[in-house]
Amino acid sequence: MEKGINCCFSAMMTNSYTFVITSIAAFIVMRVLYVIYWSGKPLCTKPAKPFSTLIVLGSGGHTAEMLNLLSVLNTDRFAPRFYIAAATDNMSLQKARLFENSLIDKTGVVENAQFMQIYRSREVGQSYLTSVGTTLIAITHALWLMIKIRPQVIICNGPGTCVPLCVIAFLFKVVGIRWSSTFYVESIARVKRLSLSGLLLYQLRMADQFFVQWPQLQKKYPRAHHVGCLM
Amino acid sequence: MGDTSNDSIKPERIIFVTVGTTCFDALVRVVDTLEVRQELFNEGYTHLLIQMGRGSYIPTKSSGEGGCLAVDYFTFSSSIADNLRSASLVISHAGSGSIFETLKLGKPLIVVVNEDLMDNHQSELAEELAERKHLFYARPQTLLDTIKGMTLETLIPYHPGDAKPVAKLINGFLGFPDD
Predict the structure, then answer these.
(1) Could you report the per-residue pLDDT of B72-86, keeping only the tens digit for each?
(2) Closest in B97, B175, B179 to A47, CB measured
(3) In angstroms, what separates the C-alpha of B112 from chain A's closest C-alpha?
(4) Contact status of A64 with chain B (Cβ, < 8 Å)
(5) Of B166, B173, B178, which to mutate for an interface test with A (greatest number of A Cβ within 10 Å)?
(6) CB-CB neighbors (< 8 A) of A151 in chain B
């Protein structure tokens, strides 16, 4: 008799566990869909203050293209600016510093920028086995930086380091830590196929606006905006 | 400086070869071959300057006396802008930085694609710009034929792009008025 009650009780417990877990899962899925739905939509409120902005730089042309874009943006609207480049890339932050100095010369406004380095999950030529460990370190580091910055705007154009940062920004939206808008500009070097970073962010719908520089790419990826060459 | 009289007869025409921060021995090796050097000299060029990056192949220097091309090289420099400006022809790796820096200066350009690279997405850009006749496109094996067959006059000048459309979309998305 007692055994039967126990049995019944445990069955109920399992049932309620399943119920709780399903509800949580359903809630998370709803929240993710809600965030995806609103992510592609322009902001409704007129901005009262400048947006804190994260700018991801990268060697191999990425930084040059990014600075070209920043030079036509009204930088007063995007402040403070946080520049991030891979720890192994010492040229990009130097170029960003030069750009910021030229802004000070032009406007006389005090510098409103910070420069940071981030660990890369995998260096060119690194073995896949050791890259499991380095990827974990890189993700932790990215999370730490993002908690410190909590940017409202993210602008990136394709170096591999931008993917974890954009994913974390998306998670911040889901959890409710910070709402942000991510702008992704595919590099001019990509004419026929997206880069791996671009493809991931496009398919996961993690970029609020996705720009490509060649018409061939826009035909393949209809949610992207074709903006012509930046260089 | 001793041969200023020579210079006045034959103006300097420099070919500048650049591999950026990469290692591209296949390109350095091919521009260093006798055939390519002789062909460039026949086309009226006087100096060949090679920025060889991280490569290990060292080209043969030459002072350019006795009817041949003067050859010099260096590994890196903080800015190649001056080298590009003084060049009459640029032969470059397929990096987008070097390509656009050269095109913006309006210099004739041959882009040589490094086929040893694993992820060779860079050839896409060079191919597209070659189709639009902004530059010539070659592989190390075909560089000599490209030099022999090219007519620089057929190149169409590249008009620099513009980031303003992107800026406009970003501003619009965030609710900022247009400037």
Answers:
(1) 999 998 889 999 999
(2) B175
(3) 15
(4) yes
(5) B166
(6) none
| Interface predicted TM-score (ipTM) | 0.89
How many angstroms separate the CA atoms of B16 and A23, rounded? 66
Does CATH place domain B4-174 in 3.40.50.2000? yes
Give the predicted TM-score (pTM) of the model.
0.88
Per-residue pLDDT tens over the stretch A143-179: 999 999 999 999 999 888 899 999 999 999 999 999 9
The one-letter amino acid at A58: G
Domain ranges (residues) in chain A = 1-39, 43-226
Q: Does B102 touch chain A (CB under 8 A)?
A: no
What is chain A's pLDDT, residue by residue, as a tens digit (231 residues)? 555 666 666 777 778 889 999 999 999 999 999 998 888 889 888 888 999 999 999 987 899 999 999 999 999 999 899 999 999 888 899 999 999 999 988 877 777 899 999 988 776 667 777 778 888 888 899 999 999 999 999 999 988 889 999 999 999 999 999 999 999 999 999 999 999 899 999 999 999 999 999 999 999 999 999 999 999
- Alpha-carbon distance of B112 to B75, in angstroms, equals 18
Domain ranges across chain B: 4-174
End-to-end Cα, chain A, rounded Å: 81
Tokens read off for A60? 């191999």
Given CB atoms, is B81 within the 8 Å cutoff of chain A? no
Chain B residues in contact with A231 (beta carbon < 8 A): 96, 100, 160-161
Identify the residue among A65, A69, A72, A179 best suited for mutation to test binding to B, counting B beta carbons within 10 A and taking the highest: A72
Chain A interface includes B172 (CB < 8 A)? yes
Return d(Cα B124, Cα B11) in angstroms, integer: 36
* Run of H or E including A137: helix A128-149
Tell whether A210 lies on the interface with B, counting CB pairs under 8 A. no
Neighbouring-strand partners of residue A185: A211
Which chain B residues are closer than 8 Å to A46 by Cβ?
A: 175
Question: Starting from the edge strand earliest in sequence, which strands make up the sheet with A153-156, in order?
Answer: A113-118, A78-86, A51-56, A153-156, A181-185, A209-212, A225-226
Q: How far apart are CA A164 and CA A152, in angstroms?
A: 16
The partner residue sitting opposite A72, judged by closest CB among B96, B97, B164, is B164
| CATH class as words, domain A43-226 | alpha beta
Peptide linkage before B177 cis (omega within 30 of 0): no
pLDDT of residue B9: 61
